[in-house]
Amino acid sequence: MIPTRNIISAVLCMALAISGVQARTILTPDAENDYNRRLKLQPEIAERLAIPTNLEASEQEALKFLYAYLATPDVVDYTTDFFLENTRLALRAADEMPWGATVPDREWRHFVLPVRVNNENLDDSRRVFYEELKPLVQNLSMKDAILEVNHWCHEKVSYQPSDSRTSSPLATVCNALGRCGEESTFTVAALRSVGIPARQVYTPRWAHTDDNHAWVEAWADGRWYFLGACEPEAVLNLAWFNAPASRGMLMTTKVAGAYDGPEEQLDVTPISTIINVTENYAPTEISTVYVTDREGKPVEDATVRFSLYNYAEFYPLATKKTDRDGRAQFTSGRGDMVAWASDGKLFNLEKLTAGDTLRIVLNKDSNFTGTLEFDIVPPKPGGNTPAVTAGQMAENDRRKAVEDSIRLAYVNTFVTPEQAAGICRELQLDGRAGDLLVKSRGNHAVIEKFLRETPPAQRTKAVALLGAIAEKDLHDITADVLADQMDYTADSADSDLYTQYVLNPRVANEMLRPFRREILSNLTEKQKREYGADPRLLEKHLSDIIAPGLTFNPEGYRQSATSTLDYRIATPLDRSIAFVAICRSLGVPARIDPVSGVTQFADAAGQWIDVRFNQEASADTDLRAKGILQIDNESDLGGRSPKYYSQFTVSQIVDAVPQLMEFDDFETLESINSRRQPLQPGQYMLVTGQRMADGSVLSRVSFFKSEPGDTTAVPLTVRSDANALQVIGSLDAEMLYTPLEFTPDGLQTGDNRSILTTTGRGYYVLGIVMPGHEPSAHALNDIAAAAEEVGATGRTFLILFPDADTASRFRISDYGNLPSNVVFGADDGSIAKAIQEGLELPSPLSSDFPAFIVADSFNRIIFKSQGYSINLGETLARILNSVE
User: Fold this and answer.
1) Residue 322 to residue 303: CA distance in whole angstroms
2) Helix (H, G, I), strand (E, B), or coil: what is residue 54?
3) DSSP helix/strand/coil, 601
4) Which tens digits make up the pLDDT trace of 317-361?
5) Which has the closest alpha carbon to 783: 826, 795, 804, 760?
6) Is 626 exposed, middle or buried (0-12, 13-18, 19+ CB in 10 A)?
7) At a CB cut-off of 8 Å and minimum separation 6, what does 800 contact?
8) I need a surface site. Which of 233, 315, 667, 676 has the fewest CB within 10 A?
9) What mean pLDDT is predicted for residues 151-158?
């Protein structure tokens, strides 16, 4: 039987059709003007912007709207036929879906028609998704259709962290996993495919913990609703992040085109609008900053960066320009920020509490050195959750379990380690090739075929190529890219320099496409000789022929090297990618330095030489003209080494604005010092911080100078508060254990589940104990003695045994007064090892049982107790009651 709400929806659509509703307005006058303006401003790609004349009016209008606001890389890297197919599919969905006529023109133009969601590779997902989703949702109401699409997405994809490159929706499905940015991109694409307006919501950084997140908003029946991508709930506006979002400082959405919706516009570019949707999740305040010079006069057109401490840097949430009164304003959540104001030569920074008015005097120049300290407090938790019945929750859980099994059945078709080992034996390859096959997941057929079709004498080179690319590249690299690398890269002795910086096709986060054959075919023999012998000639050539391309690519989407050379318009980064691609095609090692972001090539001695294009480069490229960074730790972190992005970061001050140096994620201070990191002469900023258990931060900012040829010794001090809990380590809450239940019939084991599934969001206690072990027994007795206090916390106490066999020796009857929020399980050694590593303990936990930690679902450990202790139950309850 069709639900009544669907009958009403169908009747409404019929009534609209019968009444002669006007055709949808796709191309507004402003959009048409923007399209025509672009034709004049980008004559280099005017041919690619041209709209075929043999199309229906609606198709022409939709294509004009898209081309008015497509980023330049999308125009030159994808064909008109590709966008025409997507346009026709969007129009078809509007025609065939029951809600098609009810979607307003504005929401359809900006949130259904566009193909791009974020910075993903574009693909044919709209067609594939529509064919599969249409039968599932065509008889549902719009809100129910949103829920159904998310269940379908959960069936296809589960969460797994990865690098910052965003896979295409089809690649995400193929590999059955994605990080939150990929899951939300995929879910938005799925919703748009069936004509439901959808957009990706992004909090660039949480305020209360080091991380960010992305999710989805979908439009239905006149309003926007949110949902966790690939994380279906029984109702809309419900997700694990309800509470964290209520503490957020900023949530944004990037909209294609010139958008005139009701939300605050944070930034408007020629191709997009960034809107502020924070008010959908958290209470907000308007902060005002007045910028003056030393004489107190307003500074017009100064830059104000409203920055949030996260990952040990002050990350800019929003950048504003001051008006004639020197004023800039920003709407955010109710927490603390640091406002950084500059005019290109002078700067200053001050703590800013949301809702306050702050005056900043530009009084620091490029010679400033000194130290500042800021105590940063995040917004208080809050948030409301919609009502959900027990029946709804049970049905939703049942469906998710079925979807998990379907996805797992698909994942089980991937190459197993045993199968990979057999292929390696057959092809006479070592175990490294087997590891790569397993890591390729849903792309295993492409990788296996590549290895099989490579001549035996070239298979060592083939394995080196696969080992050089990122693990995510193994998930979606195509056969033509692999063939291009093999066929047009000269053989060389197997070395890291050759493998990583000649053979490797990956330069930055660009979409991998074949480039070597085309580059080599377009170079003259003279150019090949000259550029190969002296890449500085190539540097000058690219500086001369490539025009700046930021106007219609403000987000910095990556462009293929071949398109950069064909159309001679690119961002500075795309020009660098083209330089590296040409060098590697000629056998010259080249890269974009991962720390400084400077383009480099290696000379005959293997020494990296900086490339500066239009800048003066003679002195900068000489290592003798650079300084050396030496950071001296002066902090007591309990024997732990400070880690980059955890306790500290370094930024160079360029034109009075910080530019972060990109060291490896969580690289230790010792590792950074050991390689004597070269520094360009100039001004730098060392930021340190200690994240407290309540999410607040004790930060310190030290400015220093680097001089040519000198070693700059910089003291690193991490502030602390002996009276407050601090984050002391990490533990992945997604780790699995085996649930145990002690029944009269004996020990019962359940299916493996994650810590997070058991504890829910927030803080929890995890202990590892040993039966028949006095200190462990004492700890459990202490918890039993404090049963009332422990139970009143409402938090889960997860007690694990080293393994299930050990647990069989435990007698729960000895601890009859344990509160109901204590649950039991068995580890396989992995959680104990992770705790040891996360706390950087010198010995395994088994050397001093029991071990108890207080941690939260954001993977933060704030308390540890190991070995014999007294009053443990009371201590744990007190800690849980002191944090939110």
Assistant:
1) 7
2) coil
3) strand
4) 999 999 999 999 999 999 999 999 999 999 999 999 999 999 999
5) 795
6) buried
7) 737, 766, 767, 768, 769, 824, 825, 826, 827, 831
8) 676
9) 96
Residue 813 DSSP symbol: G
What Cα–Cα distance (Å) separates residue 718 from each residue in 56, 279, 311, 689, 724? 64, 34, 14, 6, 14
- Any alpha helices (H) in 548-621, and if so which ranges? 561-567, 572-585
Q: How far apart are CA 102 and CA 106, in angstroms?
A: 12
The pLDDT value recorded for residue 615 is 65
Query: Beta 327-333 vs 284-292: how paired, if at all?
Result: antiparallel
Helices (H), 593-720: 669-674
Nearest-5° angle of CA 313, CA 335, CA 858?
Answer: 60
Residues 6+ apart with CB under 8 A from 679: 626, 627, 628, 629, 652, 706, 712
Q: CA 328, 333, 337, 340: dihedral to nearest 10 degrees?
A: -20
* Cα–Cα dist 193/347, whole Å: 47
Q: Residue for token digits 């908003």?
A: 217
Which residues, 6+ apart, have CB-to-CB distance to 496 below 8 Å? none
Nearest to 299 by CA among 330, 320, 324: 324
Residue 717: left (phi > 0), alpha (psi -120 to 50), or beta? Answer: beta
Task: Please say whether the beta carbons of 815 and 755 come within 8 A.
Answer: no
What is 313-361 written as a DSSP string? Answer: EEEEEEEEE--TTSEEEEEEESSEEEEEEE-SS-EEEEEEETT-EEEEE
Q: Which residue from 315, 263, 311 is spatially nearest to 284, judged by alpha carbons?
A: 263
- pLDDT single digits (tens) 165-175: 999 999 999 99
In angstroms, rounded to a whole number, what is the distance separating the alpha carbons of residues 57 and 68? 16
CA–CA distance, 357 with 658 (Å, rounded to integer): 23
pLDDT in tens, 545-581: 998 888 999 999 999 999 999 999 999 999 999 999 9
CA contacts within 13 A on the Cβ side of 181: 18
List helix spans (H) across 138-179: 142-156, 169-175
- Parallel, antiparallel, or unpaired: how do β-strands 697-706 and 627-633 relate? unpaired
Residues 6 or more apart whose CB falls under 8 angstroms from that of 744 comprise none
CB atoms within 10 A of CB 745: 7
pLDDT of residue 314: 97
Are 236 and 146 spatial neighbours (Cβ–Cβ below 8 Å)? yes
C-beta atoms surrounding 616 within 10 Å: 7
Q: For residue 365, what are its two tokens?
A: 């120049």
Angle at 537 between CA 534 and CA 539, to 5 degrees: 110
Count, in order, helices (H) and strands (E) of the chain. Answer: 32, 37
Longest Cα separation, the chain? 86
Find tokens 């939709």 and name the residue.
62
Q: Which residues contact 649 (CB under 8 A, 6 or more apart)?
A: 311, 312, 313, 660, 661, 686, 687
pLDDT at res. 868 = 63
CA–CA distance, 88 with 96 (Å, rounded to integer): 12
Compute the chain's Rg from CA coordinates. Answer: 29
Tokens of 813: 């009857």
CA distance 488 to 520: 8
CB 642 within 8 A of CB 673: no
- The sign of the torsion formed by the CA atoms of 342, 348, 353, 359 equals negative
As given in the structure block, the two tokens for residue 782 are: 């202490």
Please answer whether residues 309 and 689 qualify as being in contact, where contact means their C-beta atoms are separated by less than 8 angstroms: yes
Q: Contact 611/535 with Cβ under 8 angstroms?
A: yes
Query: Mind listing the pLDDT tens digit for each residue in 625-680?
Result: 789 999 999 988 766 789 999 899 999 999 999 999 999 888 999 999 998 988 98
Decide if 574 contacts 552 (C-beta within 8 A).
no
Tell me the Ramachandran region of residue 587: left when phi exceeds 0, alpha when psi lies from -120 to 50, beta otherwise: left
* Residue 207 DSSP symbol: S
3-state helix, strand, coil in the chain (%, to 5): 40, 25, 35
